[in-house]
Amino acid sequence: MIRLEAVSYSYQSGEEQAIKAVDNISMTIEKGEFVAIIGHNGSGKSTLAKLLNGLLLPQAGQVWVGGKATDDPEANWQIRQQVGLVFQNPDNQLIATIVEEDVAFGPENLGLPSGEIVARVQESLAQVGMSEFRQHAPHLLSGGQKQRIAIAGILAMRPQCLVLDEPTAMLDPQGRREVMDTVRRLNSEEGMTVVWITHHMDEAVSAHRVMVMDQGRVAIQGSPREVFRQTELLESLDLDVPVITRLGQLLARDGFDLPPDVLTVEEMVNLLCP
Amino acid sequence: MFNSVSIGQYYPGDSFFHRLEPRIKIGLITIYVISLFLLDSFWGYLIMTLFTMTVIFTSRLPLKLMLRGLKPLYFILAFTLLLHIFFTKGGTVLFRWKKISIESAGVISGLMMTWRLILLVMTSSLLTLTTSPIALTDAIEGLLSPLKPIGVPAHELAMMMTIALRFIPTLLEEAEKIMKAQMARGADFESGNLIQRAKSMIPLLVPLFISSFRRADDLALAMEARCYRGGKGRTRMKVHKVTSLDWLTLGGFAGTMAVLVWLGI
Amino acid sequence: MSIIATNLTHIYSPDTPWTAKALDDVSLEIQDGEIIGLIGHTGSGKSTLIQHFNGLLKPTAGSVQVQGIKVEKGINLRRLRQMVGLVFQYPEHQLFEETVAIDVAFGLKNAGLPREEIPERVEHALGAVGIDYETFKDRSPFELSGGQMRRVAIAGVLAMEPEVLILDEPTAGLDPQSRNDLLGHLRRIQQERGITLIIVSHSMDEVAAMVNRIIVMDKGKIYAQGHPGEIFRHGQELRQIGLDVPPLTQLMFALRAKGQDLPADILNLEEARAAIGKWRKGGQASV
Q: For the stretch C143-160, what's the b/e string if a residue is b when 16 or more beta carbons lie within 10 angstroms of its beta carbon?
């Protein structure tokens, strides 16, 4: 679905040396996959998100979306439609004063006929469970609700892949749960390809694949188990390890027969008390 | 403290006037305003008042809301009234004290002027009260688009209005937050003379500007990610069609007004 | 006695269609030198509560007393605000001066501190949050990293040397490294100065390790309060009012549900490790 070939991107800041935000990254994202990208602030993960849908173009290497390169000016808009990007601050990505008008913004830009837009708006709002808020003003909704409207606005463009750049960073636990559940369901029930960027480890536990970024490079990559078992490496990158995994490793040191990659509470319960 | 500000306060409803095509509504109100200036008589104002009242009642707009809309104008209304009472001369002298006199023509023209102003403001506010902001911007875009060839950026203006309407509440909320944060650091926004007060706004305005620019940056990126590339090739979800009933209403109203003006009422 | 709220009620925009009761008959006492975690989801009334402590809001009904001063109309707000430092959410959004040092000094100037005392206070405040005065004093606050900006903004409040320091969601949006740094600084500041510290958060996990008492708010009322361990014992109920239950507490509850004898009030990894170790030994002994 998406393929990166030796992609690099640096920002020029004043006269100082350019900062390499993304440094020679190659990766593939398969259709229907849920990929979590983790890294602390400044690790290059947001730059990577913008490279995926052509908002930024690689300075070296190539990003391929469904067989087309993002730097091909002809394919540019098609790629932005195919790879939908949701940002961190829900307030700053809603543009209309009424929810349904906002969700319609993308399809309107695609030049679709009115009847089609209406159908897509209804469908997308239903997908994120916000149908009843169709006529509401976005600024009166909660953070989680706003973020779901932002997701609906992207879904209305019928993308093949959803890239979410720290979508929960500004939300409270309830909002986080709402947004996470919505996206997980889109992935598992509708086969939507998802790239989920975060610094909350526990949000990555249920991903198919976890990619840890550090200084613009991929530091670790693999299934959540393969990644989170590498406690010391993660800690050296200033990242948290899920607390259940850490507990499992400590107990193993105390003589418990536990693997180093217990991820969830349920697993731990079943292992300790079968 | 900013909670009481509500801009473009749309009062949702499903009345005849609510459902009129917004462009037609703008047309109707324009005709109304012109007629109000041409019909300069008691009977003329009375008929216009009846029109306004009919719309208010059939649209189920609470009269209280309409009167609250006049509040910011109380000063101007009072000023107009007093200006005419004291300085327009003619008719019988009602009151005289030293060099000050109040004459009947002044009282009459003062009352008429105030009446006209109230009608003007109330009727124009009917537009924003019965039309959603989005429909209104669409209408403005529609009305301006014939001027595109001579360089009027109709789409851009409408888009700017939409974004402004969307972000006004957000920025007001933000302003309040910043104000409180600075007050917690001992800032004083309320006392001092004019210059001191203007200076005391800096700790509010600088952060507010910075945050607005950051929001603008984010928003531009988000719009681009949603395939926005200006008005070209863009369609709309809600297509506003002018129905024959709309035309009929506009024609009927324009005709009535023309007859009234012709009769010299 | 530091802060006393008695039957405190706050109603926003009374007598309008959008009126909202944010605080409903809240009574509480906070002692000098206590470290409090104030927990609740968005809209539970926690932000409204803390704004009463420095007079930004006044009670609609009931009363608030801070260090013996009753918060009401006509009091010396300047003194109250110097005594109770309030750091809002995303405090970096309030930075506005040209340099870090001038921005931190803003509150001191407002308080009318003699000019010659200011630099020392600024240096001290920046040091307390781990920002080196000499390196950063002349830099623009807008060139700093997110975590640094946050700490500079907090220094702006610390410089006033408040007796009560209140922070609303101090770690929101920070990555784990900056979060741990910041919490570490706060803990040290509290210990060194012996001040009362109130941390508002929606994450119990984060504050549990450092506070003496947790106050849980819901719908404008105090839902529960007590030592973190006691609060965690109510784990499952807390989930229903929109709060996160820490994974370790979830684990304990799940094991207890299976009839295992484990404590419900563990706070951190080490306690969990010890408790499970003990449980296993007990289990083997009985076999």
A: ebeebbbbbbbbbbbbbb
Residues C264 and C174 in one domain: no
pLDDT tens by residue, A98-119: 899 999 999 999 999 999 999 9
Distance, in Å, from the CA atom of C42 to the CA atom of C28, rounded to the nearest integer, reads: 20
Residue in chain B closest to A99 (alpha carbons) equals B166
Q: Give the domain range for residue C257.
A: 246-287
3-state secondary structure of A267: helix
Domain map of chain B by residue range?
Answer: 8-131+243-265
Place of tokens 């400044």: A42
Residues in B closer than 8 angstroms to C51, CB to CB, are 180
Res A14: pLDDT: 61
CA distance C244 to A265: 14
Q: How far is B157 from chain C (nearest CA, A)?
A: 30
Q: ipTM for the complex?
A: 0.90
Cα separation, C147 vs A177, whole angstroms: 25
B60 φ/ψ angles, rounded to the nearest 5 degrees: 55, 40
Residues C251 and C188 in one domain: no
Mean pLDDT computed over every residue of chain B: 87
**Paired tokens of C127:** 């040091």
Mutate to test the interface with C, among A139, A265, A266, A270 (most CBs of C within 10 A): A265
> Cα–Cα distance between B119 and B125 in angstroms, integer?
10
B partners (3+ CB pairs within 8 A) are A, C
Residue C269 to residue A243, Cβ atoms within 8 A: yes
User: How many other C-beta atoms are found inside a 10 Å radius of the C-beta of residue A73?
Assistant: 9
Q: C197 and C273 in one domain? A: no
Amino acid letter for position A84: G
- Per residue in B187-233, pLDDT tens? 888 877 888 888 889 999 999 999 999 999 999 999 999 999 988 88
Same-domain check for residues C186 and C282: no
Q: Could you give the domains of chain A?
A: 2-223 (3.40.50.300)
Tokens 């208010």 locate to B56
CA distance A157 to C137: 48
In a domain, residue C121? The reply is no
Handedness of CA B225, B230, B233, B234 (dihedral sign): positive
Confirm whether C271 is domain-assigned. Answer: yes
Cα(A29)–Cα(A48) distance, integer angstroms: 13
The pLDDT of residue B2: 43
Q: What is the DSSP string of A188-221?
A: HHH--EEEEEES-HHHHTTSSEEEEEETTEEEEE
